Every structure is written in C-alpha cells, then in structure tokens.
Amino acid sequence: MLCLGAMAAQAAVLWRQGEPRGCVLAVGGALFMLSDALLATNKFAGPLPLASLWVLSSYWAAQWCIATGLAPKAASLTSSASPASSTPQSPSAWRGSR
Q1: pTM over 0.85
Q2: CA dist 54 → 11, 22, 49 (Å)
Q3: Cα–Cα distance for residue pair 34/5, rounded to 1 Å
Q4: Other CB atoms closer than 10 Å to residue 5's CB: what's the count?
Q5: How far apart are CA 34 and CA 56, in angstroms?
Q6: How many CB atoms are closer than 10 A to CB 30?
Q7: Distance (Å, rounded) from C-alpha 46 to C-alpha 42?
Q8: 13-41 pLDDT, tens per residue?
Q9: Are 6 and 32 in contact (CB under 8 A)?
Q10: How confident is the model at residue 43 (pLDDT cuts 50, 70, 90)?
Q11: What's the CA gap between 38 and 79, in Å, rounded?
C-alpha cells in the first residue's frame, strides 16, 4: 500500500501543478488504491458483497486511467517526423546517395 500511496501522491502533485494529464493519472492512482483496499478488506476483514465486481472494475478503471495518462499524444508522434523523411524517394535518388 505504501508504493501505491506514493504513486497516487505523485500523480496528485502533477495534477495540482497543472500537468494536462495529471488529473487522469491522479484518478487512476486513487482507483488503484481503492481496488487494493477493497481486495484487502474482502480478504482480511470479511466478505464484501459482489467483491469481484468492485475489485475488478476499480482495477481495470485504474489501469485505463494510468495508461491513458502516460500514453504519448498522437500529435506529438507525427510532429517529430520531418516532412522530407516521410516523402518517398525515386529509385534514382537511391543510387545517387551511395
């Protein structure tokens, strides 16, 4: 739980600093902590009704939020390639480049 708490706290700091994807990461961290807390409660404190539903739905929602928050934006992938490198060259240009 300490590692998950640290992850959620770091995501919350990013969100508070105005990082565009920080909110999604913070929600993902909080959902991850909720998932583990539900799992521990069900295992050690007593059975929860529909435990599998709550644990797995919060777990998968957390995974989605974290993956979405960490994924590079599509625009940044295409803007880094230079226009000349994406233009196909003719076979004569291949021979001249040796």
Answers
A1: no
A2: 23, 24, 9
A3: 10
A4: 13
A5: 11
A6: 17
A7: 5
A8: 888 888 888 889 889 989 999 999 999 99
A9: no
A10: very high
A11: 43
